Amino acid sequence: MITAQPPSSQQEPRHAPVRWQQLWRDAIREPAELLDLLGLPDLAARVSATATAQFAMRVPRGFAARMRHGDPDDPLLRQVLPLDDEDRVVPGFDLDAVGDLDASGGAGILHKYDGRALLVATGSCAIHCRYCFRRHFPYGEQTAAAGQWRASLDYLAADASISEVLLSGGDPLSLSTPKLAEFTDALARLPHVRRLRLHTRLPVVLPERVDAELLAWLAGLPQSVVVVIHANHANEIDAPVARAMARLRDAGATLLNQAVLLRGVNDSVAALAALSDRLFDAGVLPYYLHLLDRVAGSAHFEVPADEARRLHEELSARLPGYLVPRLVREVAGAPAKLPV
Ligand SMILES: *Cc1c(COP(=O)(O)O)cnc(C)c1O
Ligand code: SF4
User: Fold this and answer.
1) According to the model, what pLDDT value does residue 147 have?
2) Roughly how many angstroms between the first and final C-alpha of the chain, as a whole number?
3) Ligand 1: distance of its center to the CA of 201 in Å?
4) Residue ranges for the chain with pLDDT beneath 50
5) How far is residue 175's CA from residue 57's CA, in Å, rounded to a whole number?
């Protein structure tokens, strides 16, 4: 279960919280409050108490400010509001949709693909996305940071074929920068690891996370750094987010985006093209467009593969190749993400 507090409050000595941590804690957690802010009180009747109890709502205020007032179909709202659609039991939508439990090497490591090892750095996220396949992931003590990184570092040190380490989660940037530095200081002693990749939604949902301390850490890393952000709709990328991207690039990071194809959020050529355009303007190239992982409670977000393929073909006809993300799906046991 993804916890609601940044792990810094549990696993690290207490310091005065920095600004992004205060904003994190100030997130909207009551569906009724969010709906009142947006002038949509009637929508409260469709909120599911069961879904909210199972996977709490969590929305940074700055992200909520990008939603359209009075629009029940707003694409950003749809990603975070626990609707009663989640209560439907649909065959084929399961608890561990991508076989993560099988691939877990312990210590929060998922080593499924050649050359790349993924660390579930932490279970925490600043926002709770309703479609997320990790909503049922039993993190517990399985996160890499929980054991002071020791077990994960031992695993990485023992396998010289690993040239790239991915920090994922949850959201790795929900860890404090000193906690991240603890890991990368040790990682710097493993010369076979040449690239560090961060899979993070924080620069999009809480751009204040990209602060001076984070940038200094990034700029000082000996590895090449790739930051894969996660935005599903052009409206997620406003001016503060674009400025955060510029700072990440100035710190030397290569910026890519992954999105999930979601019914009612970005399931049109116009929405996908607008997302690619906005990303490019912010210095980010589209990388993956994922088919939804079929996790319990997310069936109402699904776009069938045939329709996805059609959308992707039309997108390819409209945009330069470098603005067309790869349409992929994850299949348990496969050697890579599979093209659709
Ligand atoms: C998606 C994923 C990766 C990265 O795959 P790329 O195709 O290199 O982006 C690595 N490890 C795991 C476990 C993954 O799920
Ligand atoms: S999509 Fe990313 S940010 Fe959203 S809940 Fe899942 S892991 Fe967290």
Assistant:
1) 78
2) 30
3) 16
4) 1-4, 7-11, 102
5) 20
Question: Beta-carbon neighbour count of residue 294 at 10 Å?
Answer: 18
Backbone Cα Rg of the chain: 19
- Start and end residues for every CATH 3.20.20.70 domain found in the chain: 101-339
- Token duo for residue 337: 């993400």
Tokens of 125: 């996220």
Tokens (6 digits) for 149: 């990184």
Distance between CA atoms of 295 and 89, rounded to whole angstroms? Answer: 10
Per-residue burial over 151-164, b = 16 or more CB atoms within 10 Å of its CB, e = otherwise: bbbebbeeeeebeb
Nearest CA to ligand 2 atom 7: 170
130 lines ligand 2 (CB under 6 A): no
Identity of residue 40:
L
Q: Is the CB of 127 under 6 A from ligand 2?
A: yes
Residue 108's φ and ψ, nearest 5 degrees, are: 75, 20
Among candidates 226, 237, 321, which has minimal Cα distance to 279? 237
Alpha helices in 188-337 (DSSP H): 202-205, 212-219, 239-250, 269-281, 305-318
| Model pLDDT, residue 217 | 98
Domain 101-339 has CATH 3.40.50.10490: no
